Queue: 2 jobs
Job 1
Amino acid sequence: MTSAIFYASKGGNTKEVANKISFALDEIRVFDIAVTGSEYISDYKHIVFGISTWHGGEMQKDWKKIWDDFKSIDFEGKTVAIFGLGDQKNYPNEFADAMKYVYDDLIESKATVVGFTSTNGYEFNESKAVVNDKFVGLVIDEVNQPHLTDERIKKWADDIRADILHATS
Ligand SMILES: Cc1cc2nc3c(=O)[nH]c(=O)nc-3n(C[C@H](O)[C@H](O)[C@H](O)COP(=O)(O)O)c2cc1C
């Protein structure tokens, strides 16, 4: 299997979403980077990354810990998708910002990033995670819109399935 999910989570929301995405993608492996660090990332060719935003636009702390190692990984030839957790009501000016730090590094490292999504259905002022009017991945707001989570995951999993799961190389 060349596909896996890597995430970190402070309070458990990103973990729960990671597990749901795995379930929707034929139960691909899920790694908590708080436990495994960045060690196994380069073993996989089709990768889903999960990150939550904390403290006014910062990446979750376990992501911070692996950041230098993460930046040294060569993503050329890899296909990746990103999901992010945030809170649009309490942090409307930094909504899900942390996704963008991962996205920028992946693009710089020549990864193919798939799974952009529409901003329709969210209410916020600013988000670094919006590029060319779209989120750079799936955004989940468990604080304000938990009732939309399962539907959003299903739609996104359908969207990225061919690239992440049934990729031929
Ligand atoms: C102190 C604090 C700061 C936060 N800062 C942000 C933020 O800047 N932007 C955002 O979109 N969400 C922010 N959030 C919301 C979290 O990203 C959200 O609760 C998320 O579901 C947490 O996921 P996790 O428990 O998997 O880490 C913040 C939450 C707390 C409690």
Note: The chain has one domain: 3-164.
Job 2
Amino acid sequence: MGKWLEVAVACTRENVEAAANVMNEMGSGGVVIDDPALIVNCINQGSIETVAPSFGQTAGSGVVVKGYYPAWPGTNSRLEQLLARLGQLGVTWSTREVHEEDWATAWREYYKPIKVGKRFVIKPSWEEYNPGGDEIIIELDPGMAFGCGTHETTSMCLALLEDELHGGELVYDVGTGSGILSVAAALLGAEKVVAVDIDEVAVRTAAENIQLNNVVDIVTVRQGNLLEGSVKVRADIIVANIIADVIKALAPDASAALKTGGNLIASGIIRDRADEVALALENAGLTCERRMEKGEWVALVCRKV
Ligand SMILES: C[S@@+](CC[C@H](N)C(=O)[O-])C[C@H]1O[C@@H](n2cnc3c(N)ncnc32)[C@H](O)[C@@H]1O
């Protein structure tokens, strides 16, 4: 793995585009634009539901544009040209060396086997673990997809799947991410699991994790929007760990895709919006029978009556 030189340019909003153009023209294969105002806009529009409490203290008002250049002999002269052109824009900059392996694997150091629910152990694929008693091991390499098991919204789904699955069920996993809930359902005895995600990186990661856990005969994964085009037979269980608005949008289709007596496990719901989501699910013909809370998050179990 190689070394890279990161050039971070402090800009005003007016010269962001010019700085990004210069960096691209000088050979950065894309730039990162770090603009706290974009996050504030998203918060105001309601498209981000949670923000680290430290955000307000750490977010400055300026924009930082970052470009990356392979650190090999010859980069120095290119860097001089780049800095001269940036100088003409009247911006300031800093440089630092970054190692490719730092990006790709640094997070792995902090990701160890963890126990979730009553029996699950989520084991990173590169870690050793000797299972004890009736533990169920989920091997996982989440890559760039959401779902390494540590998030409250995921761990509530795992605990609820343990309670709701008894063997032989058809399960739809909407917004599968790393595939963690599909693998869990298969290991708990589901007969068939259909996993869907709108994001192609998630679909690829889920397929790898399904293979890693030897459940390819049980779980199929496809790219798609919610349940569109996925429902051939009504399900016993639908699990969806997405955000409040998406759960509300899913409610009518989820209700139609469940057998009578089947359950929707809906998670990813921020506490302030749980009543509103529950109402949308009830209006779609489901009865919310159980509510679980962890931190700021709520998961609901709603039955098709
Ligand atoms: C919070 S993650 C949950 C991942 C995993 N199921 C878990 O519980 O850890 C939500 C996932 O839903 C996917 N998603 C968001 N909107 C979607 C949609 N309209 N249709 C299908 N998947 C969607 C995202 O790409 C993301 O992978």
Note: The chain has two domains: 3-105, 111-304.
